[in-house]
Amino acid sequence: MNHLSDLPPVAAIVIAVFVVLGSSLALLGSVGLLRLKSFYQRLHAPTLSYSYGTLLIIIGSMAMFSLLEERPVIHELIIGIFMLITTPISLLMLGRAALRRDRDAKLGHDEIVPPRVTPSEAPAQPLRDLSNYGEGRLDKGLLSSTKDQPESEP
Amino acid sequence: MSAQLILEYALSYAQIAMVLAIGLTSWRVLRGPRAQDRVLAIDTMYINAMLLFLLIGMGNGNVFFFEGALVIAVLGFVTTVCAAKFLMRGEVIE
């Protein structure tokens, strides 16, 4: 008998569902980080663990400790608010750094990114073909089977 | 099958899943073709370790793992911002 036996059965099952969902989504985000092909696609995958994983596990932890100690335990909200603030900042800075590095001619263009356009020389053509942007040339994914697909060189 | 046993199995599954997630991100750190891939993978690894700490605290019934998780979250944010500044400018403090 441990501390888990003090929980009501319905609350224990609800907490189990929250924990399993949160950890599965975090694992899915890490699998996406490994599988996606280019950096700009990979930037999207771990946000599953940033948002859904953190939120669901925090809700489960808050419910569990509130029921165990029979008082509201809400200090896990600090982690939630902190993640809510810091995740956009860090990912935005990382994305801008990657875009700057990809535009730098000295470092070599590893991925196809849109060129830098100043407002004075805005393009006369309003729509550019964005279908090839974000496809990496170096990394074709680790687990995905891209060998059978022909190399589409722009 | 009592509800307590279900919760124990759920917590064990969640901890194993987070360890697997840390393993996958460390694979991306070792392999990542460029520096920004490694930085992104290290950031994800920090967050997964934070979630693992929260889950271990839930499994032990110990509130004090929460503070470790908070420290890991703060350190992960600072690490990522410094690494992104270094990748962008070539120096951290200008």
TrEMBL record, chain A:
Q: Which UniProt keywords apply?
A: Membrane, Transmembrane, Transmembrane helix
Write down the InterPro entries for this protein, in alphabetical order.
PhaG_MnhG_YufB
Transmembrane helix recorded as keyword: yes
Q: Where is this region: Disordered?
A: 110-154
* Keyword rRNA-binding appears in the UniProt entry: no
Task: Cite a single Pfam family from the UniProt record.
Answer: PhaG_MnhG_YufB
Source organism's superkingdom? Answer: Bacteria
**Which PANTHER family does the record associate with it?**
ANTIPORTER SUBUNIT MNHG2-RELATED
Protein name (Swiss-Prot/TrEMBL): Cation:proton antiporter
Specify the species: Paracoccus aestuariivivens
Automatic annotation (TrEMBL), chain B:
User: Which superkingdom heads the taxonomic lineage of this protein's source?
Assistant: Bacteria
The transmembrane residues are 6-27, 39-58, 64-88
Q: Does the keyword Membrane apply?
A: yes
What protein name does the entry list? K+/H+ antiporter subunit F
Q: Keywords of this protein's UniProt record, alphabetized?
A: Antiport, Cell membrane, Ion transport, Membrane, Transmembrane, Transmembrane helix, Transport
Q: What GO terms are given for molecular function?
A: sodium:proton antiporter activity
Q: Where mainly found?
A: membrane
Query: Which InterPro entries does this UniProt record tie to the protein?
Result: MrpF/PhaF-like
Q: Which family does it belong to?
A: Belongs to the CPA3 antiporters (TC 2.A.63) subunit F family.
Might you report a single GO cellular component term? plasma membrane
Q: Which Pfam families does the annotation name?
A: MrpF_PhaF (PF04066)
Q: Where in the cell is it found?
A: Cell membrane
Q: Does the keyword Ion transport apply?
A: yes
